[in-house]
Amino acid sequence: MPHPCLTCGACCAYFRVSFHWSEADPAVGGTVPPELTEPFGPHRVVMRGTWAEKPRCIALDAEIGVRARCAIHPIKSSVCREVPASWEFGEASEKCDKARLAHGLPVLTPADWYGDDIAA
Question: What InterPro entries does the annotation carry (predicted)?
């Protein structure tokens, strides 16, 4: 089954994505492209677009609920790695559910991962 995030993108267009500045500083091993970030306080940066009134990460290439991909997926920030899709690891994800509902999408269920026959 294809990963449900590939047809979603809701979290990337709902949450502010802030993280320590070092993740965007190549001089100290940061991997997030600094040009995709902006300052957010003395020790943090945010992904451009996510501190807007209607957040949408600059790295998101998506039509929410139809297709989605992160343009920097292999080198994305730690905070992006910390939001699992609901039931990806056997339990609901409050953040995933909140973002999906905000975009009018149903929350994921075990059936989205395993099919109706196994989830029942």
Answer: Puta_zinc/iron-chelating_dom
pTM of the predicted model as reported, rounded to 2 decimal places:
0.89
Contact 9, 64 (CB under 8 A): yes
φ/ψ (deg, to 5) at 4: -60, -25
Query: What one-letter code names the amino acid at 29?
Result: G
Per the listing, tokens 């953040």 go with: 95
Cβ–Cβ under 8 Å, residues 108 and 87: yes
Give the type of residue at 54.
K
Q: How far apart are CA 40 and CA 60, in angstroms?
A: 20
Give 20-57 pLDDT, tens digit per residue: 999 999 999 999 999 999 999 999 999 999 999 999 99
